[in-house]
Amino acid sequence: MRSFLGVLFALMLYISCSVEDRERAALEVGQEFTDSDVRVITIDTFTVELSTFKFDSINSSSSGRLLVGRYIDSVFGTVSSQPYFELSTTNYSLPDDAELDSIALILGYDRYFYNDTTRLSQINVHQILEDLEPEEGFFYNTSTLKFDSIPVTSRNYFPEPIDEDSLHISIPTGFGQEIFDLIQENEINEDDELRELFKGFTLVPGKNEDASIIGFSRNMENSYLRFFYSIPEEFDEEEGTFDLFINQNIGVPRAFNNIESDVSETVLSQLTDQEINLKSTESDNVSYIQSGIGFATRIVFPTIREIGEIPGNGTVLSAVLQLTPPQNSFDDMLPIRDSLNVTIVDRNNVITETLANGNGDVFAVTNQNDIEFNEIFYEIQLGIYVDRKLAESPIIQDALVIFPNNFNDSINRILINGENTEDSEAKLIITYAIYED
User: Fold this and answer.
1) Which one of 86, 171, 185, 410 has the fewest beta carbons within 10 angstroms of its own beta carbon?
2) Rg of the chain over CA atoms, in angstroms?
């Protein structure tokens, strides 16, 4: 299970969120052919069953982002993320006469954030006490490592992920003096030797924080541990820097995010195994999605084959699924995504394939460019899938699943109205052509 999801979500990083040339209904509702033997009808009374399940784990080591922070969500409880990362370099060399002046951890913003950045946040920098060596080739959102309970340093700050390039965290010089000296004396010349002394950092958000989750880049050009040094000269001093960074050019993951959501006081606490489905009719008529944590919405159409009971020979011209988020479930601080991935899972909620049609991968796309009555909803073109379900024999117990792109390195959450919501229920609309016998 874990290895499959690891590969899946690594591949998801390459999937575009834009959709062009989507399927469109060939005929409008009620339109009739001049040939009286053919008529076209639209049906929107099929049962659409929504439920929520939770992936056991998500590969978070393939992410290009460090996520750190904590906030309290009215639906998903306390949400927090704590990154772990190892630091090394490609050139273990320092001038013989260099003198260490100061050290700083520079974290480059990658412009991702979620929830309220106007609130004071805290980052506690702790030393990791274990090597970053995953047992199965990946680290997951559920992975943890031992770390020193006493922080190397702490920094309170107001995040500025859009207006600033980076966050500067001063590190006590005494912490890095031994590392500096051993590199200078050629006692540390490679990663394994550095790892014996220094295994890396984890960034822990404030214990009682209710602020935001912030994304920082893992790229060596943006985030690094920098040693500032000077070389005494007769009339002046020469200054220089030496950096340790997250090495992304080797096969073993050197960073991951531990992402948690305390749902113990919510209806989602029931989802303790990936095979458990929580029906929307049992959860306030809402289905749930949250990146990073692993909540996803599962969709089945139990009555779809009843279309075959319509007299005459028929064919599906188009099938569109409309899903509506409750209007009070998103805002500027908790935005929804413009598009969602659509995949197929088996009866145990194991992903088997990405849904595709003749135009490529299928996405759930919002109508934000054509909003009527200020209602935002998602549309999914399902003509290919519906045709397949009507033709299959024996019947396969699979389902559609929707979740955001970047499911493994973001915290975005989305609520979807269930099938019994008045005026904005989940709805499958099929345009059907009937050829009379």
Assistant:
1) 185
2) 26
Q: Which residues of 304-323 are buried (b: 16+ CB within 10 A; e: fewer)?
A: beeeeeeeeebebbbbbbbb
Instruction: Supply 134's token pair.
Output: 């995953």
Long-range contact set of residues 327-334: C-beta below 8 Å, sequence gap at least 24:
327/374, 327/375, 327/376, 329/75, 329/414, 329/415, 330/414, 330/415, 333/114, 333/115, 333/116, 334/73, 334/114, 334/115, 334/413
Cis preceding linkage at 172, omega within 30? no
User: Quick one: which of 189, 174, 419 has its CA closest to 299?
Assistant: 419
SS3 helix, strand, coil % of the chain, rounded to 5? Answer: 15, 40, 45
Check residue 62 and give its pLDDT: 87
Q: Tokens 């996520």: give the residue.
A: 67
Strand partners of residue 52: 278, 297
Nearest-angstrom CA–CA distance, 340 and 336: 10
Query: How big is the CA angle at 182 (ends 177 and 185), to the nearest 5 degrees?
Result: 125
pLDDT for the residue 373: 55
Q: What is the pLDDT of residues 330-359, one digit of tens each?
A: 999 999 999 999 999 999 999 999 999 988
Identify the CA nearest to 289 among candidates 425, 380, 404, 409.
Answer: 404
CB 427 within 8 A of CB 361: no
Burial of 174 (0-12, 13-18, 19+ CB in 10 A): exposed
Cα angle: 114, vertex 119, 122; to 5 degrees: 85
- Per-residue pLDDT averaged across 41-54, rounded? 95
305-329 pLDDT, tens digit each = 999 888 888 899 999 999 999 988 9
Q: Which residues pair with 428 in a beta bridge?
A: 321
What span, in angstroms and rounded, lies between the C-alpha atoms of 202 and 225?
A: 13
CB 305 within 8 A of CB 429: no
Distance CA 326, CA 330 (A): 8
User: Can you tell me whether residue 280 is helix, strand or coil?
Assistant: helix
Mean predicted confidence (pLDDT) in 199-227: 97
Alpha carbon 195 to chain centroid, angstroms: 30
Token pair for 391: 């033709």
Q: How far apart are alpha carbons 227 and 99 in whole angstroms?
A: 10
Of 166, 131, 408, 152, the C-alpha closest to 254 is: 131
